[in-house]
Amino acid sequence: MLEDYDKGTDLGEVARDFALIRELGASGWRGSFGWDDYEPAPGRYDFAWLARFAELAREHGLRLRPYLGYTPGWAAGGGSADDLAWNYPPRRSTDFARFAARLAAALQPAGSVISYEIYNEENARLWWDGTASQYARVYREAAESLRAAVHGIGVLPGGLVWPDAQWLGTVCEADGAVAAAAVHLYAETWTPDSVTLEQAIRDLAGPEFLDTVDGPCGRAPVWANEVGFATTGDKTERDQAEWWVRAIAGLAADPRVTLVGIYEVKDLAPGREAIGEPENYHLGLTRADRTPKLAFYTVRRLLALLDRPFTVEPVDVTVHGPTTGGSRPEVRLYRRDDGRQVLLAWVPPGGAVATVDVRLIVPGRQAVGYALDGAAFPVAVHGRGIEGLRVGPGAPRMVITVP
Fold first, then answer.
1. Residue 322 to residue 316: CA distance in whole angstroms
2. Long-range contacts: 5-11, Cβ < 8 Å, 24+?
C-alpha cells in the first residue's frame, strides 16, 4: 500500500493508516523520503522522526519500500523545464549517495526497510529534469553507497511512468544489479480512452521491455509498484472497485510481475498541496476521513483470496450471450497451494452481460462467490464445472472453490 507523509506528521495518524493497511491484508508500505526534508542543509541530517516512523512500521509488521528523491535547493544542479529545485539532478551525485547511505544506516536498527528506490518516475520531465545518463550516474553511485551501508539491501530505479525500455537500459548498463524493474500503472485515469487496463497490463511486461529486463538488468523481477484509479468526473466508486478486480486479476496472472503497489490508502484532504492534476486527490481506497470506499472491501477480499502461494492455471471457458467490440469476458483461474481455486471473471468496458461456463482444474465440493462489497453468496459447482455464471460491466465475479 502507498501513502506519503511529510516529516513530522502525527505518528498517531500514521498508525491509523498502518492499521488500515493490515486490515486490508497488505504486507508493506511504499512512499517518499524527501532528501530536502532530511538533509535541509549540507551535512545537517535530521532522521529522528523517520527513525520513529520505521519503528512504528516494525511494530505493525509492515515492510517499508521507500523511494528517495526531491533534491534540496542547496544540492540542485539546474534543469531545463522549470525553475523548481526538487526535480533537478544533484549538482554532485556524491552528495545524494552520501545522504542515502546516512539515511539507510539510521533506519537499519528498526529492521523494517527492505529496499530503496532512487527518485521516482524519473523518465518524465516533471519528476526528473535531466537526462537518462545523468540519472544513471546518480543511481549507480547511490546504489553502491546503499549496498555498502546495509548488507543485502535491495536497490532499484524509481518506478517508470511507462515501460520505458530505452531509459531502463541506460540505467542497467551502468549498474546491472537492480533489485527490480518497476513501472507505474494508471490506465483509464491518465491514459487516452483507447488504452484499456487490459492492454496496459499486457504492455507492462511486453517483449521489448522484457528484452531489457532479461538482458542488461539481469532478469530482474517486474514490479507494478504504483497502481491506481481515481474516482473523479464520471468515474464512480463502483467503477473503481471493478477496476481493482481487473487490475489485480491481470497482474496476478502475469508470472513476471512479483509485486503490486496499491495507490493509495486514502484520498488527499481538500486544500492539501499536491503535485499534478485533480485526480491525485481521489485515488484512495478510503476517503480523506478514512471512511471506506467500495474498493476498500473489494481489495480486501481479493487479497484474502490470493493470500497464499498460487499457480496460474489454463482455463476452459464457454461464453453464452452477446459480446461487443471484441470485449469478451475475461476469466483467470488461480490454484492455491491449499487446493482451493480462485476464479476471477469480468467484462472490459464496452462489453455486454454474458453467461460463462468454466471448467476447473480439479473438482470442487462447494463454491462461494463474493460481491464487490465482500459479501458472500453461494455459487453452484458440479465437480469440475461452474455453469451459468453471469458477468457484465460493473458486475465482475470473484469465486473460490473448496476441494
1. 18
2. 5/31, 5/53, 6/37, 7/34, 7/37, 7/38, 7/46, 7/49, 7/50, 8/49, 9/49, 11/49, 11/52, 11/53, 11/56
* C-alpha–C-alpha distance, residues 218 and 221, integer Å: 9
Full-model pTM: 0.95
DSSP 176-232: ---S-EEEEE-TTTSS-TT--HHHHHHHHT-HHHHHHHHTTT-S--EEEEEE-----
Per CATH, the architecture of 11-307 is what? Alpha-Beta Barrel (3.20)
The residue among 286, 241, 262, 283 whose CA lies nearest residue 396 is 241
pLDDT digits (tens, 9 = 90+) for 265-317: 999 998 888 887 889 999 999 999 999 999 999 999 999 999 999 999 999 99
Q: Which residues sit opposite 366 in a β-bridge?
A: 402
The answer to whether the CB of 204 falls within 8 A of the CB of 191 is no
The model's pLDDT over 120-135, given as tens digits with 9 standing for 90+, comes to: 999 999 999 999 999 9
| C-beta neighbour count of 1 within 10 angstroms | 23
For residues 68 and 4, give the distance between their C-alpha atoms in angstroms, rounded to a whole number.
12
* Residues contacting residue 399 through CB under 8 Å, at least 6 positions apart: 342, 343, 344, 345, 367, 368, 369, 370, 379, 386, 389
d(CA 174, CA 143): 11
Query: CB-based contacts of 302: which residues, under 8 Å, 6+ apart?
Result: 244, 245, 248, 249, 344, 398
